[in-house]
Design a protein that fits this description.
heterodimer, A: 174 residues, mainly alpha, Butyryl-CoA Dehydrogenase, subunit A, domain 3, 8 helices, B: 365 residues, mainly beta, Methylamine Dehydrogenase, Chain H, seven-stranded antiparallel sheet, four-stranded antiparallel sheet, 4 helices, 26 strands, 43% strand, globular
């Protein structure tokens, strides 16, 4: 299992030019970054751009990165903020998703297409909070710190988001 | 809540290649500088002064120069340090400089570019585009108003020349036929377009500073950059055609499929990809001095301005033009460092302005 201390070691090695360790770090974090972006923007190409751009930010700031800070939350903060910006911009341009989000790979642990479709009906800020809470498994306090929001705002977005999802999916979401 | 997003693995593969390239191109922070103690520094300075002012001291410096591979500047360009031939632009026209140092003037042409295998040169005058062979014979020409900045690309059997007329982009076949303004493309900035090696994908910069890759076969735009590049001065593809270098005022950006994957900043005035690799050489100014970096390593430093850099076709030598000293400096960066300088460059190309390098081409061809 990949652990935060492994991140720090990989970062240190990557700072010294070890490409294999950089790849290890990339592989350990890609899926979660890409999935989080996808669940906020509901567009695979945009999600790829967002996650890739977040990793390019890692490369650009690699030498200055403070290894005492956890890497995952830092990366997720970039991904989710960019994803929110992207979704907002698309909403402002009045873009709509043609046939809804692309079908995901076979669901695991009951996360099904109806739920993904329901997420698309939330506004981007609510989507981001739900994704951070239930996909990336951050606590509300951690989400508040990640997004620079008051904890109460995080809780209310979560609550409203879950209410909307419950209506859409018609089953209990804890 | 767990799931797998669509196209996750393909996206991962693509993204890793981009991230890996960006990592290979990144500029690591310089190592912390060790400070000499004041007394030691004073002693070193005194020793250097003593060396320079005394005749034995000058001899010591001479042997030191030789020991580190720096030869005194030759009074003329007797030969190139390695295979290939140079294309040079001066006030008199375009020059072909062969490996043995012999030169041929193609008089009156303002801009010039090698054909993909170095057998011909595309030249542009005020109102004419032409293809000439290495003896200067015109193979064909095309009268067009305000022709500038040709670039010749393609394969051994099919080639195209891209050029600008004022701010319009044109493409003509390598035999001078089928000249056209490709599909009413947006106006192009005054920087030479660049063909992707061995393919018909043409990179150019619009007057609004966006880089576009135009597929000259399909007549479509393959991609456009997601950022703007103000004041571009050079476009160049890596040998494998995967990366595009965009040099702008003070910065060199590396673009892949329209996205910037690496930036080298800090008063960069020129840059070039090493043939066969993604390594960048760059010229950077620091106050009154200039330096040449290959990757993160400084390989040459001097007072004043370095203008152009150009790699030898084998990727072992780097030509640095140094107008402040009226010199060209050849720096060997593979197989042991060596520096060969050539003085009196302006006079050798018939005076006027300091000549510019248009390309160092093709060991074979």
């Amino acid at each position: 299992m990949w652990r935060p201390s492994a991140d720090a070691r990989a970062l240190h090695a990557a700072q010294r030019g070890d490409e294999r360790e950089l790849e290890r770090l990339f592989r350990a974090h890609w899926a979660r970054a890409y999935r989080a972006a996808y669940l906020v923007v509901h567009d695979a190409a945009a999600a790829e751009d967002i996650a890739q751009e977040a990793f390019l930010t890692v490369i650009r700031t690699l030498d200055r990165f403070d290894r005492s800070r956890p890497f995952g939350p830092w990366l997720h903060r970039i991904v989710v903020n960019r994803a929110i910006d992207h979704a907002r911009a698309r909403a402002l341009r009045g873009e709509v998703l043609g046939d809804g989000p692309e079908p995901a790979a076979p669901p695991v642990d009951g996360f099904d297409e109806r739920l993904i479709g329901g997420l698309a009906e939330l506004d981007p800020e609510q989507r981001a909070v739900v994704v951070l809470r239930y996909l990336l498994e951050y606590t509300p306090g951690e989400i508040a710190a990640l997004l620079d929001l008051p904890r109460g705002t995080v809780n209310s977005r979560l609550r409203r988001g879950l209410d909307t999802l419950r209506e859409r999916v018609g089953e209990e979401i804890r | 809540m767990r799931f797998e997003a669509p196209h996750e693995r393909e996206a991962e593969k693509r993204a890793w290649l981009v991230v890996r390239d960006a990592y290979r191109l990144r500029e690591p922070l310089p190592a912390p500088r060790r400070r000499l103690r004041p007394a030691v520094a004073l002693a070193v300075a005194a020793a250097v002064v003593a060396c320079v002012v005394s005749p034995p001291g000058r001899a010591v410096l001479g042997s030191l120069r030789r020991a580190v591979g720096v030869e005194p500047a030759a009074p003329a360009l007797f030969r190139l340090p390695t295979a290939g031939k140079l294309l040079v632009r001066s006030d008199e026209g375009a020059w072909i400089v062969h490996a043995d140092g012999s030169k041929r003037l193609l008089p009156g042409w303002r801009d010039a570019a090698w054909s993909p295998f170095g057998r011909y040169v595309a030249v542009a005058g005020p109102d004419e585009l032409a293809a000439v062979d290495l003896d200067g014979h015109v193979r064909w020409s095309l009268a067009r108003p305000a022709v500038r900045l040709p670039d010749w690309g393609g394969t051994r059997t099919d080639t195209r020349i891209a050029y600008l007329t004022r701010s319009r982009l044109h493409v003509v076949a390598g035999d001078g036929r089928s000249d056209g303004d490709p599909g009413g493309r947006p106006a192009a900035a005054r920087v030479a377009p660049a063909w992707q090696p061995r393919r018909f994908l043409l990179a150019y910069v619009t007057t609004r500073g966006r880089v576009k890759a135009y597929n000259a076969v399909a007549g479509t735009v393959a991609w456009q950059s997601d950022t703007h590049f103000p004041r571009p001065s050079r476009l160049e593809w890596s040998s494998d055609g995967r990366l595009l270098l965009v040099v702008t005022h003070g910065k060199a950006s590396v673009v892949r499929d329209g996205r910037v994957v690496a930036v080298r900043s800090g008063r960069v005035t020129a840059a070039a990809f090493r043939p066969g690799s993604h390594t960048l050489a760059a010229v950077r100014r620091h106050g009154g001095t200039s330096e040449v970096l290959v990757g993160p390593r400084v390989v040459f430093r001097g007072t004043g301005v370095f203008e152009d850099i150009s790699w030898s076709p084998d990727g072992k030598w780097l030509l640095v033009t140094w107008p402040t000293a009226d010199q060209w400096v050849f720096v060997r960066v593979a197989g042991g460092r060596r520096i060969r300088a050539v003085a009196n460059v302006t006079r050798q190309f018939e005076g006027g302005a300091f000549p510019k390098i248009a390309g160092w081409c093709c060991s074979a061809g």
